[in-house]
Amino acid sequence: MSEEALSRIAAALERMSPPPAAEPSFTEATAYVWQPDPDRLEPVAEVNRVDLVQLIGIDRARDTLLANTLQFARGHAANNALLWGSRGMGKSSLVKAVHAEAVRQGLPLVLVEIAREDLGSVGRLLAILGRASDRRFVLFSDDLSFSHDDTQYKSLKAVLDGGISGRPANVILYATSNRRHLMPRDMIDNERSTAIHPGEAVEEKVSLSDRFGLWLGFHPCSQDEYLAMVRGYCDAYDLQIPEDRLRAEAIEWQATRGSRSGRVAWQFFTDLAGRSGISV
């Protein structure tokens, strides 16, 4: 085979399997998204988040996660955290808000988001983050859950337990889920009822959530808390509206949605702000 043919083959192979991107210096942004194949960390110029003071009705979870995050960002011991519970109650918003507060205080904390379907590559990501010893990383996985035949949860154990090599000391995991045990309750009950040894049937999967040091529950809000959220958004954006009108419209909005949550409060405020000529 000629040298020219070999060169063409080599060039084609390089195009098919490009070299991995250079590791970031983590100076161009404070948040990144992990993208495997090829492995790279894409910087996020502006994180989509709300201020910590606008997260109303979740005071205990807010204070606990903030304290844990600041401990970690300062180089002290801290726990992995599982934020679980009702939809739209600010789980992912809280993670992004406490990260922003740590950055505001001048702490070297970087937020790295990894999708559930990319957990199989988490070992390679941990290797990259572990080499950046001058930074502390919150590894964030949003809306985490697993089905009965899903094996991605085994990759998650590499973050929580670390295996032989151990999890890098400068990495911590925050995950959000609608499920406390990260898998459907009916699936757990079904596997227990059909197994020869019910106690062992789902222990490996259910015990995954036990590996999180912090469990922070998010529950449906009351009407007063919902209205306080709406009022908080109005105050933050200086939207002037009579209290009785605000209350009536907010209650009507949540009645048409059939639920109350921080997300519903924000959606109502977005509509109200648009009608009032305010950009959010």
Features:
280 residues, single chain, P-loop_NTPase, seven-stranded mixed sheet, alpha/beta, DUF815, Rossmann fold, 2 domains, globular, 11 helices
Provide a count of the helices: 11
Beta-strand fraction estimate: 5-15%
Task: Quickly give the CATH architecture of the largest domain.
Answer: 3-Layer(aba) Sandwich
**N-to-C SSE series?**
HEEHEHEHEHEHHHEHHH
Helix content: 40-55%
CATH superfamily of the largest domain, please?
A: P-loop containing nucleotide triphosphate hydrolases
What general outline do the C-alpha atoms trace?
globular
Q: Radius of gyration, rounded?
A: 22 Å
Name of the level-1 CATH class of the largest domain: Alpha Beta
- Low-pLDDT runs of 5+ residues are none
The largest β sheet comes out as:
7 strands, mixed
Annotate the secondary structure layout:
Blueprint: H1 3-16, E1 31-35, E2 40-43, H2 59-73, E3 81-85, H3 91-104, E4 109-113, H4 122-131, E5 136-141, H5 152-160, E6 171-177, H6 185-194, H7 198-201, H8 203-206, E7 214-218, H9 223-236, H10 243-257, H11 262-275
Parallel strand pairs: 1-4, 3-6, 3-7, 4-5, 5-6
Antiparallel strand pairs: 1-2
What's the gist of this structure?
Pfam families: DUF815. This protein has 280 residues and is α/β, with parallel strands linked by helices.
Please provide a written account of the structure.
By secondary structure, the chain is an alpha/beta fold. The chain folds into two domains: 188 residues, P-loop containing nucleotide triphosphate hydrolases (Rossmann fold), CATH 3.40.50.300; 53 residues. It is built from eleven helices and seven strands. A seven-stranded mixed β-sheet has the order 2-1-4-5-6-3-7. A hairpin with a 4-residue loop joins strand 1 and strand 2. The longest helix has 15 residues. The radius of gyration is 22 Å and the shape is globular.
